[in-house]
Amino acid sequence: MSNRQNQTEVILIGAGIMSATLGSLLKELVPYWRITVFERRGGAGEESSNEWNNAGTGHSSLCELNYTVEQPDGTIDISKAVKVNEEYQFSKQFWAHLVKSGRVPDPRDFIMPVPHMSFVQGERDVAFLKKRFEALSTNPLFPGMEFSDDPGKLKEWIPLMMKDRTVNQPIAATRIETGTDVNFGALTRILFKQLKDQNVDIHYNHQVKDIKRAADGLWEVKVKNLGNGMTERHAAKFVFIGGGGGSLHLLQKSGIPEGKGIGGFPVSGLFMVCKKPEIVQQHRAKVYGQAPVGAPPMSVPHLDTRVIDRKESLFFGPFAGFSPKFLKFGSMFDLITSVKLHNLTTMLAAGVKNFQLTKYLVQQLMLSKEQRIEALREFVPDAKGEDWELVVAGQRVQIIKDTAAGKGTLQFGTEVISAADGSIAALLGASPGASTAVSVMLEVIRRCFPQHLKEWEPKIKQMIPSYGLSLVQHPELIQDIHISTAEALGLGNRTH
Ligand SMILES: Cc1cc2nc3c(=O)[nH]c(=O)nc-3n(C[C@H](O)[C@H](O)[C@H](O)COP(=O)(O)OP(=O)(O)OC[C@H]3O[C@@H](n4cnc5c(N)ncnc54)[C@H](O)[C@@H]3O)c2cc1C
């Protein structure tokens, strides 16, 4: 081990929102632990976490129709909506703690209040939205949600979307004032800056090439310094693989049995962006619609007010597509090199099962700008091509694995994969994503540091008062959390 450059308690691979969050949580819990970070890009938050690469929605189920499922008996199952909302409350509480403790100077650099809305057309979808509204608005997690099927009211709420619209079928929307737009790129950079200030050793332009268990039980990470081409070796007791789309390859290299039999299915994304103030100022909301038939749930179209560097713009999309890359700045060989003997049959089964989806994604990729503008006109009837530019978004690598539902099943959630002894963990998958980073990283801590949990819990509860509790069963706590996080995060005098 003489050629090891460095030995620390923790190595974080990747400088996205997940590593930023885990590093920040650990620094709060055990400030004296030494943490090293390796990132292949020149800075933090340049892949999916970057503000131009994701939609910036603080996912809390206020508007995403796919989180509430209509059951065969016509009732609405809101369990996923409740789960995602409770997870987002974790994030808001931790961010509020960071603001109150001075680690994050100004919350307006990363979070803004933007109403969340769902918008549907046609009798069937209007009936669904009404039932969804009835199921959510009586739940204490969703106070203040409004429903309207009156075109006049919708004109007030979403003037840009109602201008020049021919209303020849039922139309409806829900609106909740207390939604958020989150600049996850800015947040990632802020968190890495504060980690650096707390002596975390951060190496940009360093690509992790291999991860192996050394004879002394530590994990040894082989890293290429992309600046000078030299190879370095670093070791740690615990490694977190937060490589986003790059995590699957690294998990495979670690050789842990828990990482076997898992594959990845990359989905690319494109946004149409409008920066013209005279158009931008006519819309202030994140408005989610229904996914088109055959489309995957993560390609639900939405028209969003975004606040980036304190400037407002409108994002429409994401248009999903197919690309074999696992990272935006990845390689065309990512998909093929992720196929190993242990996941071959799983991948083949997924290939057969998802032929229609792949065909749909390839077709989406081939759409011309005019065809994309046509899709946008469902939301903005008088949209003109010259007002909107195309922006390439991040890659989302969906998990493929064998489940009770069958071999090679495509999963749309995120999943923590960890070694039985808790010495290494990876995060795979892409949804609900950055919004739930705090809850997902607390799951990593729960699984990988069980021996410290009892000692750490009081501090976790101090930072995140709802930790370990079901908020739906504690309505009094919901109110407290909504008020205190809104105050700390500058979200106004709000109930959410
Ligand atoms: C189109 C789109 C829309 C989305 N919309 C939303 C949304 O509205 N709300 C939401 O909450 N989430 C959204 N998400 C999901 C969210 O962006 C991701 O879940 C989140 O950013 C993932 O963070 P991460 O840290 O895991 O990955 P990333 O941000 O991708 O970071 C991983 C980092 O690891 C680095 N890396 C990879 N391999 C290596 C290696 N071998 N060595 C060193 N470094 C490496 C990469 O360069 C990268 O910087 C969206 C994603 C996409 C693509």
TrEMBL record:
Catalysis: reaction(s): (S)-malate + a quinone = a quinol + oxaloacetate
Pathway per the UniProt entry: Carbohydrate metabolism; tricarboxylic acid cycle; oxaloacetate from (S)-malate (quinone route): step 1/1
Pfam families xref list: Mqo (PF06039)
SUPFAM superfamilies linked: FAD/NAD(P)-binding domain (SSF51905)
EC number: 1.1.5.4
Any one GO molecular function term: (S)-2-hydroxyglutarate dehydrogenase activity
Similarity section: Belongs to the MQO family.
Protein name: Probable malate:quinone oxidoreductase
Classification lineage: Bacteria, Bacillati, Bacillota, Bacilli, Bacillales
Gene of this entry: mqo
